[in-house]
């Protein structure tokens, strides 16, 4: 194999190693009582191993198949500091087996220490029970590439008493003696050092283009945050790594990664005019984008024409959307209900709006495996009203104020409505028009034509008394149709009829009073006539007596 090809193969293998390390599983370690529990987040993990070392030369090793392993503290374990090392192995495919000569390979590792006191395990205050940073895996991969590119002392001795020790790779395709790549260690150079100082570094150079594509800076050199344009990769003495002029930066000391920034302010920091993170499911052919921009932070359904499914606009209020085990909070981080909306500026409200059609739409539906209800609470006054279904199988709808002992209003499934108090209808002159005085005689005459009957509504046995809506509407022409009768119209007909009856009654009373006066006058006249008749009878009696006496005298004279 030609040396140029060999170099390219080495670089390719190294990049594959870095890629594999970046996508490796993560090992998590936790401490519970007298146990150290470790787990891998990869379903491909086929074996977990934990090794523990402690005081008095104590060592132990536990392993298990699968993604979990647990180490138990012995009863006789001494107090003190213990160290642990956990690693996971993954199953590999046939192609990987060819390169690893086995069916599995180490995929993730974690190490640290813990304290033992009185038979209990605790994490040290310094927090050293930390997981290995992904950089450690990448660093190992880089070391593997360097070991290949720079032979060890047993293979080659590249030392020089003066000048620069260099390992060159000749590419015969470019002509005899043409150097394609070279590696060299450089001392007393300020190529990447702070101005005015000197240090040492290692370069991998593309001799054709004259670019140092890979550089490791030694002690005294500048950090990896500044990358000369010609270099694709720089690793400084602290282990910080920079790719492509700062497009990708790893701050090992702070455990931070930056894309397009060499000063990451978070564990993962992306700097761009419109940064975007895409999550794509190749199995489901679906992709989503996380897209912070000038207007806010958006979740875009990329597969569906970048539809913005969720938007968090810039300047959103605190706790705009919070999810907890209790529910979802809007304006609160401690929701007490599955959906809890809180505002403290008089803007707490909800709007459900349909803008596509002007037909009837169901905009709110309440469903419960029982009696659903909606509650209105005045927190200041301590008053609560409920709107709810009740009765057998939800046979009625109620409106009630809690604490009164009964429903203030309810409607049954048959359409019967009941009020606990008084029904008051609007009847002000201010809300009426077309006002005309009625002919009460006509109303009373029409009422006399109305058939009044006893009847029951379909589906019930309760008896009622009243007219049929069809007859009432036909005779009086009142109401919106011939199927209903408004209580106010019934009251109006009754009141007009009563007024007319009162008029007629007053007329009868007047006539009766006149008759009474006439009768009284006749009674007086009759009394006077009777008195005169009596006096005449008395006079006739006296005359009759006198005539009789005269007759007797005449008779005795003869």
Number of helices: 6
Class by alpha and beta content: alpha+beta
Q: Beta-strand level of the residues, as a percent range?
A: 25-35%
Rounded mean pLDDT is 78
Uncertain runs are: 1-23, 94-104, 127-162, 193-198, 222-229
Q: Tell me about the largest β-sheet.
A: 9 strands, mixed
Spatial order of the strands forming the largest sheet: 9-10-11-12-13-14-15-16-17
Please estimate the helix content.
10-25%
Q: Which helices and strands, and how do they pair?
A:
Blueprint: H1 3-22, E1 27-32, E2 35-40, E3 45-54, E4 58-65, E5 68-72, E6 80-91, H2 94-100, E7 104-117, E8 120-122, H3 134-149, E9 166-170, E10 179-189, E11 199-206, E12 211-217, E13 233-235, E14 241-243, E15 248-251, E16 256-259, E17 268-270, E18 277-281, E19 286-292, E20 296-301, E21 307-313, E22 322-323, E23 328-330, E24 339-341, E25 373-378, E26 383-390, E27 396-401, E28 409-412, E29 417-419, H4 440-449, E30 453-455, E31 464-466, H5 469-476, H6 487-557
Parallel strand pairs: 12-13, 16-17, 23-24
Antiparallel strand pairs: 1-2, 2-5, 3-4, 3-6, 6-7, 7-8, 9-10, 10-11, 11-12, 13-14, 14-15, 15-16, 18-19, 19-20, 20-21, 22-23, 25-26, 26-27, 27-28, 28-29, 30-31
Give a quick set of tags describing it.
single chain, about 550 residues, alpha+beta, Immunoglobulin-like, nine-stranded mixed β-sheet, five-stranded antiparallel β-sheet, 31 strands, about 25% helix, about 30% strand, rod-shaped, disordered N terminus
């Amino acid at each position: 194999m030609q040396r140029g090809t060999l170099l390219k193969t080495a670089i390719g293998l190294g990049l594959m190693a870095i890629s594999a390390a970046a996508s490796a599983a993560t090992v998590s370690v936790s401490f519970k009582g007298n146990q150290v529990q470790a787990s891998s987040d990869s379903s491909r993990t086929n074996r977990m191993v934990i090794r523990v070392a402690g005081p008095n030369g104590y060592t132990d090793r536990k392993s298990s198949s699968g993604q979990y392993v647990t180490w138990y503290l012995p009863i006789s374990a001494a107090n003190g500091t213990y160290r642990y090392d956990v690693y996971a192995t993954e199953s590999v495919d046939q192609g990987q087996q060819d390169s690893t000569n086995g069916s599995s390979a180490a995929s993730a590792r974690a190490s640290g220490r813990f304290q033992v006191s009185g038979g209990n395990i605790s994490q040290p205050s310094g927090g050293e029970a930390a997981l290995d940073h992904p950089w450690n895996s990448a660093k190992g991969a880089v070391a593997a590439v360097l070991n290949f590119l720079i032979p060890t002392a047993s293979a080659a001795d590249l030392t020089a008493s003066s000048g620069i020790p260099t390992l060159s790779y000749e590419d015969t395709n470019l002509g005899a003696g043409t150097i394609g790549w070279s590696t060299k260690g450089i001392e007393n150079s300020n190529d990447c050092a702070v101005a005015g100082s000197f240090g040492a570094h290692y370069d991998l150079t593309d001799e054709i283009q004259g670019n140092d594509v890979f550089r490791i800076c030694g002690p005294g050199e500048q950090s990896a945050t500044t990358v000369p344009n010609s270099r694709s990769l720089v690793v400084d003495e602290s282990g910080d790594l920079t790719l492509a002029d700062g497009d990708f930066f790893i701050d090992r000391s702070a455990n931070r990664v930056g894309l397009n920034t060499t000063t990451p302010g978070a564990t993962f920091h992306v700097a761009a005019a419109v940064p975007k993170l895409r999550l794509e499911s190749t199995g489901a052919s679906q992709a989503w984008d996380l897209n912070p921009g000038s207007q806010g932070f958006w979740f875009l359904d990329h597969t569906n024409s970048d539809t913005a499914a969720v938007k968090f606009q810039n300047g959103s209020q605190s706790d705009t959307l919070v999810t907890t085990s209790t529910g979802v909070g809007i304006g609160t981080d401690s929701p007490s209900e599955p959906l809890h909306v809180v505002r403290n500026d008089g803007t707490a409200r909800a709007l459900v709006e349909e803008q596509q059609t002007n037909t009837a739409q169901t905009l709110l539906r309440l469903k419960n495996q029982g009696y659903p209800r909606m509650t209105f609470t005045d927190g200041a006054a301590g008053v609560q009203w409920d709107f709810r279904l009740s009765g057998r199988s939800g046979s009625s709808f109620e409106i009630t104020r809690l604490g009164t002992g009964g429903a203030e209003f309810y409607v049954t499934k048959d359409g019967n409505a009941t009020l606990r108090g008084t029904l008051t209808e609007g009847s002000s002159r201010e809300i009426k028009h077309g006002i005309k005085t009625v002919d009460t005689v006509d109303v009373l005459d029409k009422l006399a034509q109305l058939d009044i009957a006893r009847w029951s509504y379909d589906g019930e046995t309760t008896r009622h008394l009243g007219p049929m809506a069809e007859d009432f509407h036909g005779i009086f022409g009142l109401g919106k149709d011939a199927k209903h009768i408004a209580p106010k119209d019934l009251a109006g007909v009754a009141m007009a009829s009563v007024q007319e009856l009162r008029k007629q009654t007053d007329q009868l009373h007047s006539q009766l009073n006149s008759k009474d006066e006439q009768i009284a006058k006749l009674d007086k006249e009759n009394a006077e006539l009777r008195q005169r008749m009596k006096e005449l009878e008395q006079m006739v009696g006296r005359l009759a007596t006198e005539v009789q006496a005269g007759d007797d005298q005449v008779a005795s004279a003869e």
